Amino acid sequence: MSCTSCSTGADGQPKGCKNNGTCGSDGCNKLTVFDWLSNMSLPGDQEPFTGVEVRCKNGRKHFYKNSEKLSLCMGDVVATEAQSGHDIGIITLTGELVKVQMKKKKETETVEELPKIYRKATQKDIDIWQKVRAKEPEIQKRSREIAIHLGLQMKISDIEYQGDGSKTTFYYTAEERVDFRQLIRDFASAFSTRVEMKQVGFRQEAARLGGIGSCGRELCCSTWLTDFRSVKTSAARYQQLSLNPQKLAGQCGKLKCCLNYELDTYLDALKDIPKNDIKLQTEKGVAVCQKTDIFKRILWYGYEKQGGIWIQISVDSANEIIALNKKGEKAPSIEDYAIEEKVSESKIYENVVGQDSLTRFDKPKQNNNRRRNNRNKNRNKNQNKNQNNSKNQTRSRNRNPKKNA
Prior knowledge:
Layout: E1 51-55, E2 61-65, E3 77-81, E4 86-93, H1 97-104, E5 117-120, H2 123-150, E6 155-161, E7 167-173, H3 181-191, E8 194-199, H4 202-209, H5 220-223, H6 233-238, H7 245-248, H8 263-269, E9 280-281, E10 286-293, E11 298-303, E12 311-314, H9 315-326, H10 368-399, H11 401-404
Parallel strand pairs: 7-8
Antiparallel strand pairs: 1-2, 1-4, 3-4, 3-5, 6-7, 9-10, 10-11, 11-12
């Protein structure tokens, strides 16, 4: 959902955003919401909802009331009410859908309690806003140096200037409680602004900073995910994933949120599948579960004394043997319930480009010039041989004129 300014330019080169983050479709912003009610008109006797959603830096969003009844739409830059002074933000949502978002985020349902929008931002407001935003990387570096000098066990991950430049908010993460009273004094004297410290969690820090996940796409927490549910290691066990912290942890250092996405599907599929610790009692011996294919509903069992031989049976067959064991009976053997694998006669795999050749890159490539030189040498040798043969034939004819006659 990018705007026209982000389309492809000449010669297939990307144009880039020409609106400096104020896209009309809001497609270039974080945590964007699709307004599926935008093309629907309200009944004649109903007034439009005066609440609007405004986004500031990164994913920080707040709700404001349009008390002046300004004509606002997505992408408009507005000056909003703050504790002291004003802040600058971008309109991300208007209309009736704002009610749904307020209810989802458990905000106050009465619009009168919301802070208000002063006006549409003037060019002077935007210039001041962009000027203070340009200072943020340098001030973040200096703030980290001051925190290290004081010996505080904290990490300043991000800073944000208020729109009018009167206040600076420092976002930090820390594992323990931090006494930053002296730090605030040093920040106020060094940066000449009012200072506010906000502690965020590791997941919130990753959401603010953004990045690319192991799947190759942008992080879910920085694009669309707003509620951070707790992720347990049992989610990985149910999905039969190896408990490797390097693979299961995200950029925040915690377990990946995507482990919860398919967990309900796995739990539904595991309802009638017997647990791995249940042993099957047969007349041939005790069989132990070695492997489970959840969605194909297939189990692999092996006898305790013959662990290298696995026998494939279905979930229904395993439940039938377990029911017999509960009655005190034993099944004859697992082989009686084995599933025969059907192999189709048609070729499943054909080697088209030589994928199975592991040594195809080991041989060094010959230079094209050497090949040409070798070809020329062979041609010259063949020509010389032909010339020598023709000379020998003429000599033999001259020596034996009678035979020729």
